[in-house]
Specification:
The structure holds two protein chains of two kinds. Chain A has helices at 2-14, 17-33, 48-52, 63-71, 75-80, 83-86, 92-96, 103-116, 124-139, 144-151, 157-172, 186-196. By secondary structure, chain A is mainly α. Chain A folds into two domains: 2-116, Fumarate Reductase Iron-sulfur Protein, Chain B, domain 2; 124-196, no CATH class. In chain A, helix 9 packs antiparallel against helix 10 (144-151) and helix 9 (124-139) crosses helix 12 (186-196). The two termini of chain B are 31 Å apart. Chain B is 31% helix and 22% strand. In chain B, helix 5 runs antiparallel to helix 17, helix 18 crosses helix 21 (763-779) and helix 19 (703-712) crosses helix 22. Chain B has 22 helices and 38 strands. The chains are: A mainly alpha, B alpha/beta. Chains A and B meet through helix 3 of A and strand 25 of B.
Chain lengths: 201, 802
């Protein structure tokens, strides 16, 4: 989907100055309306969030940089970044932020936004997000084998063999159930998910 | 009508500030047609010299007897224009000001509506002006002495300045010694002056100055009176040692068996329960910590004198000069002073509140003040006593924070302190590695940027990024942070971690502010009268503030403020006399039937009832006018806000053509009015239906005024009182509920009344209340003409009492 990014950037370049500021303002406003985005203008770029982030090594932009990019109106770069998908929602940044920016919640909102705008980088993270909620929707709780199979690339023999051996080991140690666990009121969970608009695509 | 005075009206453009939103020409035209108006002029800047000359000339040439100035807020220029009127030979109280900037042009966008509002406001002012009376403030001699609260560097410096000028100074300090935080410091930035070397001589001068009297272990508990003539009560807590007799030989401390963490050494070392606060302490005498002393904490001590039957008293036994006295009690001292200086300084935030830095979990995580003490004790790690090789300085701990436990302001000294400490460390331990984790280095003062450069030359490692966490790891400490300039996470081992906690107001600042009747800002520190022009004065005349009591500050700024405050106090006391506002309650004796209702109402106890008369003390009266509407015979009235003036103004503001809603807001003239002004300064727009009348207090209003307002055409009334007023919230509510009940009897919806209490920075709350109230009144069925006529007839026919 890289051509998508190029196209948008090219468009951005052709926008006249005044409109560009408008579009920047519009993006900031949009983010500020999202859950977690209320206080992004409060950010003083201190780096408390980035310094303590346990998954920072796998991110292309640090949490602090994401806020900066939002403030600069870099819509596509933010939504296409790996940061929003790598975030493990551990809330370390949120509890430490001196300006009370709810960064974890903002990451969730940006994931949803990225899916809605179809601005998802190739890779497993968005799929994971999507399948995760599909499974939840179906059973009312997590059922790992199904998520596992949904995520597997069935054409890749090497990875199939590797995954199979991992799966077997997990089964043997009782880390993975064979039978799908179902809760009593699965439809209620679906309804909840519908309401929160977390169903993925 | 012929005996009515002639009025001159002057309308200011304020260089477009007013004239861009208000059609000044139309105001001039409309107002010029009013009775008694002889002169109507507009001018670009009325406060400028030519503007003032114009007013003066008009008064002299046209023989004006009343002047109305429509311009900015009276908080801004009332004194200016009163001076103008006075110099033209008119009594200054014959001037009326209309605020058409902060409360009209700056807060409304609709030119038509803003102009209509201006016309109504000016018309009301003219109506009121016709009833103005000349008043003369009473003059009294000032007491030529000063109380300085707080004996840190700010208090010491201003006390010395004033004592040298010849004033008697009382220096009150809460701790057993003067000196404050500065006495604890090692070296000062950016010159490396030894803190004690520059402070101690000043402390000694204070102790020996014939014009200074020091009270240590003491606090003011009561402040009465008024500017120039304050009466202050000081409570001196027992020290259990006679300062005059104590020779500071420390024989007592050698024999004391109780140890406690030393407050002066920031809990890093232990001291005995009886001790001298520190070597250079003034007064240099021992003090007993009553929370630790075995004798004072022993409930059996009453059984016998110290030393008997197993009761401790070793210090007393060993004291050669017989200075120890366990029978000392709280001592109350009454002082008379002309001015008060508040120099109470600051506290350090508890670093435990920022949990990720593990403060309190490892002895080698310390504050910068503790580091100062470590430098003086000989630098070592508190845990093992080794010399630290790698030290992390973490800045902005709790500062620049919007979190619940944080403080929003910058601590102002953290960057420079850390840089100074890094350089000191570099000097003391040449192989040491200081790391500074900063958010932004703020090197704003004289010589500070050069100091920062020096630290870089000495290869101090600067990491741009607020440290994320400190993890105790056995004997060392791990600091995790993001170097935001490299975009990389770093994780380093350190021997010592020094935190720079936020500078916060002392925890009983609010109490002191209430006692003195002065304001606190939103940051919890004392609030100056004007951010730039009156930086060391408070809103209350005769009370001044200096140093870190106003906000975080370094020593240089503090001493400069101390000198400024000394100059201000000298100017104030140097006049020799103080004037009392003539705006006080007076009695109309022929109406009074000696019922005594007013006596109980007065919060200042200014009204006394004799056998044949009621007297009001004009010096005690603060003009709150709570008593006025409660008098059943209407025998009380307030000067400069008399009954006639009030009703004329209400009528003037509510009358007029048009179907637009008219909401009158009665606003208390100090805090609440200032709050509305702040709203104007921030250009927060609100409904132009709101028309503000400035009252000494909401307490001034009775049901008569409410009825007059509705009879004249008002559609709703709002009462806003300041939170620091003598008319407290419950009283305001009580009175408004009474109004609502009475209003119901006349067939007017009680919901047309609204009240609120506000603080100075809370303007947003008041202004949104205005908007909501206007929306509410808009939805109501309008009051018809017949109802208003009925009310008018009622008011003409019968007297009403609240």
């Amino acid at each position: 989907m890289s051509h998508e990014k190029d196209k948008l950037s090219a468009e951005a370049k052709n926008i006249p100055q005044g409109e560009r500021k408008e579009s920047r303002k519009a993006f900031i406003k949009e983010v500020m309306k999202m859950p977690g985005g209320e206080k992004i203008l409060e950010c003083i770029q201190c780096g408390s969030c980035a310094g303590g982030c346990p998954t920072r090594f796998a991110m292309d932009y640090s949490p602090m940089q994401i806020i900066k990019m939002i403030n600069l109106g870099m819509r596509e770069e933010v939504l296409l970044s790996s940061t929003i998908w790598v975030c493990s929602t551990c809330y370390t940044c949120t509890t430490r932020c001196p300006r009370e920016v709810n960064f974890t919640m903002l990451m969730m909102s940006l994931k949803n936004e990225a899916i809605r705008k179809n601005l998802v980088k190739d890779g497993v993270n968005a799929k994971f997000h999507k399948y995760f909620f599909e499974v939840i929707n179906k059973y009312g709780r997590m059922y790992e084998p199904e998520l596992f199979f949904k995520l597997l690339d069935k054409t890749d023999v090497y990875s199939l063999r590797h995954s199979a051996s991992l799966g077997l080991r997990m089964l043997r140690k009782g880390k993975m159930p064979i039978k799908a666990p179902k809760i009593e009121q699965t439809p209620w969970v679906s309804k909840m998910l519908e309401k929160t608009d977390e169903k993925g695509v | 009508m012929s005996q009515k005075p002639s009025v001159g009206i002057f309308i200011c453009h304020c260089g477009g500030n007013i004239s861009d939103t208000v059609d000044v020409a139309r105001v001039k035209e409309t107002i010029g047609t009013l009775d008694q108006v002889k002169v109507t002029e507009t001018f670009e800047y009325l406060c400028s010299n030519p503007g003032q000359e114009m007013i003066k000339n008009a008064i002299k040439e046209k023989g004006l007897e009343r002047v109305v100035v429509a311009s900015c807020s009276p908080r801004m220029h009332l004194d200016t224009f009163r001076q103008v009127v006075k110099s033209a030979g008119l009594n200054p109280y014959l001037l009326e000001m209309v605020n058409i900037r902060e409360q009209c042009s700056w807060v409304h966008d609709d030119k038509e509506k803003a102009t209509n509002k201006t016309i109504a406001l000016v018309r009301a002012a003219v109506q009121r002006a016709l009833y103005l009376e000349p008043l003369t403030p009473e003059k009294l001699k000032v007491t030529e002495s000063v109380l300085v609260i707080g004996g840190g560097i700010a208090g010491i410096y201003s006390a010395l300045e004033l004592a040298d000028k010849g004033y008697q100074v009382y220096l009150v300090e809460r701790n057993p010694s003067i000196g404050g935080h500065m006495a604890q410091l090692s070296k000062t930035f950016p010159t490396f002056d030894c803190s004690a070397c520059i402070l101690t001589p000043k402390m000694v001068s204070v102790a020996h100055h014939p014009n200074i009297k020091i009270f240590t272990n003491a606090e003011p508990i009561l402040v009465r009176g008024f500017s120039g003539r304050f009466e202050v009560r000081i409570k001196v807590k027992p020290r259990y040692v006679d300062i005059q007799r104590c020779k500071a030989c420390e024989e007592c401390a050698k024999n004391c068996s109780v140890e406690k963490p030393s407050g002066f050494e920031e809990d890093l070392v232990q001291e005995t329960a009886i001790h001298i606060p520190f070597k250079q302490a003034i007064p240099n005498a021992s003090v007993i910590d009553k929370d630790y002393c075995l004798y004072l904490t022993d409930f059996l001590a009453i059984l016998g004198p110290p030393g008997s039957r197993g009761v401790c008293g070793r210090c007393q036994k060993n004291c050669k000069s017989d200075a120890i006295n366990f029978r000392q009690k709280d001592e109350l001292i009454d002082l008379k002073v002309g001015a008060i200086i508040v120099s109470t300084g600051f506290s350090l935030m508890d670093s435990k509140l920022v949990g990720q830095y593990s403060f309190g979990f490892h002895p080698d995580i310390i504050t910068n003040l503790q580091f100062e003490r470590l430098m003086l004790q000989g630098l070592h790690k508190p845990s093992t006593g080794e010399v630290p090789k790698k030290v992390a300085f973490i800045l902005c701990v709790g500062s620049r924070s919007e979190a619940t436990d944080g403080y929003s302001s910058c601590c102002k000294i953290g960057c420079m302190t850390a840089i100074k400490d890094a350089l000191l460390l570099d000097k003391a331990v040449p192989e040491a590695e200081p790391w500074i984790f900063y958010t932004d280095v703020r090197a704003y003062g004289k010589g500070y940027e050069e100091f920062y450069a020096k630290a870089r030359e000495h290869l101090t490692t600067f990491v741009r990024g607020r440290a994320a966490e400190v993890i105790p790891n056995g004997n060392s400490l791990i600091v995790k942070a993001e170097d935001t300039l490299l975009g990389k996470q770093i994780e380093e081992q350190f021997d010592l971690v020094v935190l720079s906690p936020a500078l916060i107001p002392n925890k009983d600042t609010k109490e002191l502010a209430d006692m003195l009747g002065i304001d606190l800002g939103p940051d919890g520190f004392f609030l100056e009268a004007h951010h730039k022009l009156r930086g060391v004065e408070t809103k209350r005349k005769g009370i001044f503030v200096a140093g870190a009591a106003l906000g975080p500050k370094d020593i240089r700024e503090t001493t400069m403020e101390s000198m400024a405050v000394a100059s201000k106090v000298a100017t104030f006391l140097g006049r020799g006399e103080t004037s009392i506002s003539p705006e006080v309650v007076y009695l109309i004796p022929e109406r009074c039937d000696l019922c005594g209702t007013c006596v109980d109402q007065c919060p200042e106890k200014a009204i006394t009832k004799g056998k044949n008369e009621v007297t009001i003390n004009p010096i005690s009266c603060n003009g709150c006018s709570i008593c006025v509407p409660t008098c059943p015979k209407e025998a009380l009235d307030l000067k400069n806000t008399t009954e006639e003036q009030m009703i004329a103004q209400i009528k003037g503001i509510a009358e007029g053509e048009g179907t637009a809603l008219k909401i009158i807001a009665f606003i208390e003239k100090r805090t609440a009015y200032g709050s509305a002004d702040l709203g104007g300064q921030s250009r927060r727009t609100y409904s132009p239906e709101i028309r503000i009348i400035r009252v000494p207090s909401v307490a001034r209003l009775g049901i008569k005024h409410v009825l007059h307002a509705f009879a004249a055409g008002a559609d709703g009334l709002i009462f806003v009182e300041g939170d620091d007023s003598t008319f407290k919230e419950d009283k305001v509510r009580e009175r408004v509920i009474l109004f609502k009940k009475d209003l119901g009897k006349f067939g007017i919806q009680p919901l047309r009344l609204q009240h609120s209490i506000t603080t100075l920075p809370q303007y947003e709350k008041t202004l949104s209340l205005f908007d909501d109230f206007v929306e509410r009144v808009k939805k109501m069925t309008p009051i018809n003409k017949e109802k208003r006529e009925e009310l008018k007839k009622y008011l003409e026919g019968e007297k009403i009492v609240a």
